[in-house]
Amino acid sequence: MNGIMIILTLLSGVALFLFGMSLMGDGLKSVAGNKLELVLYKLTSTPIKGLLLGTAVTAIIQSSSATTVMVVGFVNSGMMKVSQAIGIIMGANIGTSVTGWILCLSYIEGSSGIAQLLSTATISAIVAIIGIIFKMFVKKTTYKNVGDIMLGFAILMVGMQTMSGAVSPLKENPHFVNLLTTFENPFMGIIVGILFTAVLQSASASVGILQALSVTGSISFAAALPITMGIGVGAACPVLLSSIGTNRNGKRTALIYLLNDLFGMVFWSIVFYSVNAVVHFSFMDLTMSPVTVALMNSVFRMATILVLVPFISKIEKLVFWLIKEDPEDLEEQADFDLLEERFLAYPALAITQSHTAMNGMAKKARKNLNRAFALLKDYSQDKYNKIQQKENLIDKYEDKLGTYLMQLTGHSMSPQQTQQVSKFLHTLSDFERLGDHAVNISKVASELSEKKITFSPSAQDEIRILQSAVQEVVDLTVDAFCEDNLEMAAKVEPLRELIGILCNELKTRHIGRLQDGTCEFQQGFAFNDLLTNLERIAAHCSNVAVAMIETDSDEFDTHEYLKSVRHMKDAAYLKCFDNYAQKYKLADLSSQ
Length: 592
Prior knowledge:
About 80% of the residues lie in helices and about 0% in strands. The protein folds into three domains: about 1-320, no CATH class; about 330-450, Methane Monooxygenase Hydroxylase, Chain G, domain 1, CATH 1.20.58; about 455-590, Up-down Bundle (Methane Monooxygenase Hydroxylase, Chain G, domain 1). It is built from 27 helices and no strands. It comes from Hominiventricola aquisgranensis.
């Protein structure tokens, strides 16, 4: 029974510790707002700056995993390069050891004078009282966040004390002492450190528990060192999990965190235990205390980073070798590399470069739409995640191209060049919206899969016909834009008009199916969402085609052009429309 109570009390202490650390970290991030992220991005021009920055930020937010996850997000979005991230991650490894020193405060004891003032009970009580006053009675948000920090700190200290109190009786237990001595086998100690930290998902929590166990007087240096080595590797678990769904650079960044600790563990294991085999260090049997655990953790981490800093470029090459470049990624980077600022002084060249980059954007938007259409037939979470990931890339295209083209408008250009830039700026948002609709369709597919919704056979046939028409209008538009082919662009509007008619007809038919009970309302919402997105895709394709045709005629009034086309349809337009009407003819209702 005593054993169960010890375990329950220990786990409750771990829970309080983790909650306090989380509350304190969240409060610190709220007080800083987005400044921490901005600082991480701006101050990484050299590895040493990144190292110092990573150390400072992690010491503040008390989590190397949180810092690294933030950096993975930056690299994944393209705001930061992998080489910039390495220094920050190394600094995060050092910064996380600060928590151990903070926890040493919880072991200050004494009955009078300064010792009593610095005792855990006194510090925790004062901090908790100030924190709850800020949290409950002060209206300003910043002070409330400061209150969260103080309450988090107090809870963390109480959790630490709870853990220490839970394990203190064990120092008299011979079985427990024998168990801890088995960890003096370095391999076993490393495995325990890795597994323990992977479960807790916090190196700070693992070090805290090791400090709590050291109070029993049963932890020797020989047992604590391998566990500390394993803790760093285990802490990579949440970082690796955070890289799921990111691009290759995001995965490389997460891998750097693992490799840093893995190299440190292997290197120092070989060096330390080889030297010990020869000279037999006298301190191996030293009984550890919370302070010596914190000291060992800090020294180990700093020594590891000192060894690794000269090899930053080699680490970068290694992760690029382990996670190889994808031809698609190289193609994307090549598109962005086209937008060179030096070309802005030569508008003709800059416009050509922009057109090539926009071609890449258009093709990627089309590919994402095709992924979304395929998802309707064969849903998988991996394919769904891929669509969301590529949508971020399309947004990045819009941001970089929009910025570049706006910079170009500040230079002297001929009327034709001005029209061309204007066309690109108009069509840019339409291609981006195609990507948005791919995401919307993927969400419909997710809903259909999650709720196990199936359309009736007639509805499936109708969607298939409409989808084929939409895929053709997207192909026409993208090919026309990439090849600057006005003849192809002229075929877009007749097909767009037919798609609009088909959508209206399908809505009418589906209402009929809902009324006669062939389909249910749940199916009706998903069907309607799908039609809306397909219709909007065709409209954006029409906008691109109109922009191309209007630029060629030295005019740019989309609404007037469409009005004239729709009211004065020439023979070519009508013939094109009739061909599409025959190609995408719906089945007769009477035959269904």
